[in-house]
Amino acid sequence: MKILMTTMKMDIGGAETHILELAKALVRRGHRVTVASAGGMFVPEFQAAGIVHVMAPLHTRRPDQVLRAASILRRLIRDGGFDIVHAHARIPALLCHLLCRQYHVRFVTTAHLNFHVNFLWKLLSRWGERTIAVSDDIKQYLIDDYHICADNISVTINGINTDTYTPDLDASSVMEEFGLTKEKHRIVCVSRMDADRSEAAVQLADIAPQLYAFDPKTEILLVGEGNDFARVKAHAQKANAAVGFPMVRLTGARTDINRLIAAGEVFVGVSRAALEAMAMAKPVVLAGNQGYLGIFTKDKFDIAYDSNFCCRDCPQTNPEALYRDITTLLSFSEAEKEALGKDGREIIKEHYSVARMAQDYLDLYAVMRPYKPFRYGDYLFCGYYGFRNMGDDSLLRAMISNIQRIDPDARITVMSKNPSETRAIYGTHAIHRFSPFAVLHAMRHGKLLIFGGGNLLQDGSSARSLLYYTAILHAAKRCGLKIMVYANGIGPLHLEKSKKAAAKALSLADCITLREQDSVTECQKLGVQCPVISLTADPAFTLKEADPTWIARICTRFGIQEHKKYFVIALRDFKNHAQENIRCVAEICDEIHKRWDLTPIFLPMHDPLDRAVNRETAALCTCETVFLEGLTGSEMLGILRRMEFVAAMRLHTLIYSTAVGTPSMGLVYDRKLRAFMETTNQPYLLDSDDIDRTAFLTYAEELLDKKEEIHNRLCTQLETLRALAYHDAQTAVNLVR
User: Fold this and answer.
1) 567 neighbors 575 (Cβ within 8 angstroms)
2) Residue 433 CA to chain centroid, in angstroms?
3) To bridge 386 with a disulfide, which of 42, 363, 411, 416 should be the other Cys (CB 3.0-4.6 Å)?
4) Do 673 and 634 have their domain in common?
5) Segment (H or E) for 274
């Protein structure tokens, strides 16, 4: 591939070193990389590695320089023939976003830090079609502050080159340059000396007189430069004046970081510099502006990993703790220091290889197929999309993904309640579902209407819904589109005129696939005339589960503890006897907690429609409860895998739990739940209008007793269900071709 990376400057810094190592690794794998930045100390290393560097003033917000940078990037992107444009900072990202849209180039970003968020930056920030974060907590920051869909954010690591950062590196040249002596204890701190990153260096200079009093054979080396360098220098000069000799030395900006770290006995710092010190088997004190973790040991790895060794959410760095931990390390025997250093290097080798980092990026790039601009899609999706219903959203993601697996160049348009959000999340073209002009134009230029997922043809919720969807089917046929009713359920249809309207509309289809036998039978009763009517499985069975480490973070965020056991309750508004049923469910949850020590997790699937009933029920419970919301389908799969059992009124909660083999109980408010549970041989069903407390507890006991048996049986069905779901995608592609 031909890749353009953009960033502000290429001077000393963790993000800059990340870009350098990534670019060199991609070149080694045969890709061509160009880097655009305002220059810096790393530029010669780019040139030595065969990486083209283009000067552009991307480091400043001055309007004239921003315009100049935009002009340089415009020529690059227009004429460069790049497959991917990859921005590593906010100013370059904004410019690249505008230019990539104009010249139809795929655009991705990396988030290295959790920047301060204000209204203007929120408005101007652009995170690309896909984003990669360097830690789980930065991924969470993107979700919380920028509302990026979690499924569109992947996580990588700061890859460390263990050949460059090796314990046996000769540091004699650095020792001689700065007048360091082997007989003394040398403390090295590497950091960009900016106001938001220099606190550890300042505090290290402040405690220098105390360290001198503890052991006069102590030297401190502060490595780096930035907008706070003058303040750091002033503190260093004050310390040197106090002890009467240059105990604290400043190096300024350097590229030979490995030799400077090699010169030290103890390292102080955070983030990538700390990882580099660990790779060189140095004892490390994790201290930075965002927090303090102290002496790094193996038992602190999970905490450090979560924030990319930046100590976010840890106590603040303070001189007392810094002095205590440095003097502790200086008091260690050589064997104890070597043991700490050895543990650190093993962690780097296992978790922070450059090869893994490069592969993470290549996996991201592989998702970004070559951009082919189009105004109208061959595939026109119609369904309950853009309403923030987790079930229907997961259907759309699964169907798009499955079709693109077979037809990578598929041109897809989605009819959505929220087109801009749909475009951002799924990377497809989207139009407003209630815009007749847009819908008819899309139909006149399309090839196949995918009438996708869910029970769209029903009059249980509203006759207007049935009128809308039947009108769409008739309009599509008049415009000459083929029609595929894709993994639908049919009904309920209570009125005779509804049945006739549904039968007439369904008979227009070229292919109908239905997700339960009841719907097939209903089609036959309606007298639907279609050449192909077949039984299939819900597309959600093909969704991929989120990464286990990310699921663990979600559990921590919502207070789901590893040593406890949980079950899920997923409610929607009750049709009848609402207050009685809410009280009954709350009492059942308390009884389950009392009998089996299980904690209930309440899960609203449709935000915000399900939130109130779940909140109200949870509030009536006397036992501890957990409330989950805002998850994607892939995250839901990971959560439900950890549950003892699930009781749900929402169909897709039951589908997700079935997909991961978790025993389930259906609280039936609609025949589609009963039909699904019967199709998958799960007999645990209760009427949601009048919940039977005794039957609920009996089912719960049976689900717990037979958990392993049920899990194994569900898992044996899963491959068949997935195969059916994938077959639907092949059918859709065949209809277009």
Assistant:
1) no
2) 28
3) 416
4) yes
5) helix 271-279
Q: Is residue 366 domain-resident?
A: no
Identify whether the C-beta of residue 110 lies closer than 8 Å to the C-beta of residue 88: yes
Query: Is residue 486 domain-shared with residue 505, that is, in the same domain?
Result: yes
Mean pLDDT of the chain: 94
Q: Assess contact for 23 and 43: CB atoms under 8 A.
A: no
* DSSP state for residue 134 in the 8-state scheme: S
And the tokens for 115? 């920047």
- At residue 364's C-alpha, the angle toward residues 359 and 365, to 5°, is 95
Same domain, 595 and 521: no
Q: What is the CATH number of the domain that holds 11?
A: 3.40.50.2000
Whether omega before 600 lies within 30 degrees of 0, making that bond cis, reads no
Based on the domain organization, do 650 and 520 belong to the same domain?
no
CA distance 723 to 537: 8
Strands, E assignment, 662-735:
664-668, 685-687
**Assigned token pair, 725:** 């779901």
Amino acid at 368: M
Pairing of strands 266-269, 185-190: parallel
Q: In terms of Cα–Cα distance, which of 453, 460, 620 is closest to 537?
A: 453
Paired tokens of 460: 């249980």
Q: Can you tell me the distance from the alpha carbon of 138 to that of 135, in angstroms, rounded to the nearest whole number?
A: 5
Euclidean distance between the first and final Cα of the chain, in Å? 29
Q: Which domain holds residue 283?
A: 172-352
- Residue 452 in any domain: the answer is yes
- CA 191, 192, 197, 199 dihedral sign is positive
- Cis, bond preceding 319 (omega within 30 deg of 0): no
**Tens digits of residue pLDDT in 598-611:** 999 999 998 788 99
> Cα separations (Å) of 391 from 439, 449, 634, 637, 668?
24, 20, 11, 12, 16
Is the distance from CB of 66 to CB of 44 less than 8 angstroms?
no
Q: Measure the CA–CA gap between 80 and 33, rounded to whole angstroms.
A: 11
Residue 373 lies in a domain: no
| Domains identified in the chain, total number | 4
Verify that 566 and 531 share a domain, yes or no: no
Q: What is the pTM of this model?
A: 0.86
* Per-residue pLDDT tens over the stretch 261-303: 999 999 999 999 999 999 999 999 999 999 999 999 999 998 9
C-alpha triplet 678, 680, 682: angle, nearest 5°: 65
SS (H, E, C) 38-68: CCCCCHHHHHHCCCEEEECCCCCCCHHHHHH
Contact 543, 731 (CB under 8 A): no
Res. 468: pLDDT tops 80: yes
Tell me the two tokens of residue 249. 């030395």
The helix (H) or strand (E) run that includes residue 551 is helix 548-558
